[in-house]
Known about the structure:
By secondary structure, the chain is an all-alpha fold. The protein is 78% helix and 0% strand.
Amino acid sequence: MTELKPNISLRVDKQSLYEEKEIKEQKLKKLIEKLKSLAVKDIRTKIEMIKTVFEIYDEKLYIVGGYNSFVEFIKTCGTSVTNAYMFIKVGKALKEGQITEKDIIERGIDHIKMIVKEGNYQSLKEGKAEKDIPLRILIPSKNAYSYFKSNTKFTSYVLSRIYDEHRQLLDTLFYDYNKEKKDKKKHESESVIEMGAERHIDDASSQIQKYNNNY
């Protein structure tokens, strides 16, 4: 009678497949929770949503979650199917290097969606060429001037970042700038008036002195 030997390689393969499936299930759970938590309509949040949706779709992680299709899965995540597929297109363009996260931040998600939909990536390059215009500014502080001059690319990044994401801060600083400018002008005008008044007093005193000397 032939002795039956256990197929060890088959067991190893099954165990490996089981572990791989378990790893993917855990990954899917984490990505689903991440996707659900990205509810704030911030541009960076939108970018994370795009990358997350694309990752789940691209790696077909929804299958290990027991979903029959991506559409069935996405309906449980609080976003529309239309948006999800647009996110996939934008995510693919990001992965392929057709667009960058900076493009999305600078142009806005709606504009990027239109570019991706039409495949008009050349307009981004043309826009960048038009945007790269040197800017000359006067910095009174010697230390600040030395710092920013030695970090010109960083300075450009900071100014762009503040403009794109912290316009309220710029508006506040602009208000303070105008107020200080107005106060300075007012102070200078008052100084001129005071100097004029003093000159008139001196002239009057001189006239009186001359009159007294004559008599």
